[in-house]
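This week, work through this protein record:
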Amino acid sequence: MSGKNSIIATLLALMLTLGIAQADSLKTQLEQIIHAQSITIKNLHLVQDGPPLRLSGTPDQQLKRLLSDYNFVQLFNNQGDIEKIIITSIKRYDNTPPPAVVEKPKTDASYAIKTTRSGSHHLVKAELSGPYGTKLKANMLIDTGATTLVLPASLQSALGFTDRNLQPGFSETANGRVEIMQGKLKSVVIGKAQADNVDVSFIADDKLQSSGLLGMSFLGRFQMTFDDARNQIILKPY
């Protein structure tokens, strides 16, 4: 635990003891912790309010407890402190098996992946595998704001997609509502990090300002750290 987290954990415990940080709901508890740690949180509206929980441990452990019913991604700074949390969805408690993540035998495996820069953005080389195993390499722009991996429609047939394994839909973007075709990639490989059954959205080529977006349907499988100094990202499977 970093020195910052240790100090904040002590302060939070003291505040709770003194009654200063009494929270009347789970969402209020979450807001207090992210405010105390100066964490940016995205999609807080997905959190359903409920009674407050009894919390203990480090701020990181408390956040995981509060968000145990949600899928989320944590972004860390170079000091190892949480910088941003992106809540992607509410967990499904049914018999649907979770998407598989292929990782090294070690539970603490992490993958440092070189990136190229486009302004403040990071691009990575990805190997995409279509529904029938057709492979294609593409440069992908890392976009934590994209719900799924996004590709130009011109790549549908190259990856082996047809009307039988695509579903039409719509997506709300910064430029308005756009038509999409949704499907699943058999796998996505970035460096040595791999995830299977990855949701993908195809949109018209002229609506996409890059060769593709690496969104949360892949990134959400990993704890992700940006290392701007070394032009790399570090992915650690959950």
